Amino acid sequence: MHRNLPAFVLRATRNIQTSTASLSASFNGVIPTEKIEKRYTLSSGPGGQNVQKNATKVEIRFKVSDADWLSESLRESLETKLAHRINTAGELIIDSDRTRERHLNVADCFDKLRSAIYAIEAEQGKRQTSEEDEKILRERAAVATQHRLQDKRRTSEKKASRRAAVEL
């Protein structure tokens, strides 16, 4: 039985990009599906016959060291940041059983992978602080501490003057 799916779902599954990715330093969002192994298993949880009959849970896996569609720095960062998802064979494993339909879970797996790569890439793009920057930050912290202590002293003197007036 074929279901009428929304156009964006069809585009998402069709555009999981089967072309080869560039070897540039930045990730362009293209994940070559032919280089990634997909496994389908029975999902867990409520759902009656759908859960018992249809293998809707999706697991994608690929060897991080062989992912030539990622830059070397991204591969190293993936291995360190997502070490809890890498098995002893060096395969990164991402699974999804969010929906009752297999193709949506496939798209979800690739979205998870893509967002993890983008997050790692954004973290790599952050500017490293130099010694000059650290010096400026220390000076700002010292000035802020002085202002805070002056405010505390002023408040304390104000309260002390109120107490002196009451003791008469």
Automatic annotation (TrEMBL):
Q: Name one GO cellular component term.
A: mitochondrial large ribosomal subunit
Query: What PANTHER family does the record point to?
Result: LARGE RIBOSOMAL SUBUNIT PROTEIN ML62, PEPTIDE CHAIN RELEASE FACTOR
Q: Which domain of life is it from?
A: Eukaryota
Give its E.C. classification number. Answer: 3.1.1.29
Which of the seven top EC classes does this enzyme belong to?
Answer: hydrolase
Annotated stretches, region: Disordered: 142-168
Q: Which InterPro entries match?
A: Mito_Release_Factor_mL62, Pep_chain_release_fac_I
Q: Please report the name of this protein according to its UniProt entry.
A: Large ribosomal subunit protein mL62
Please report the organism this UniProt entry assigns to the protein.
Answer: Caenorhabditis japonica
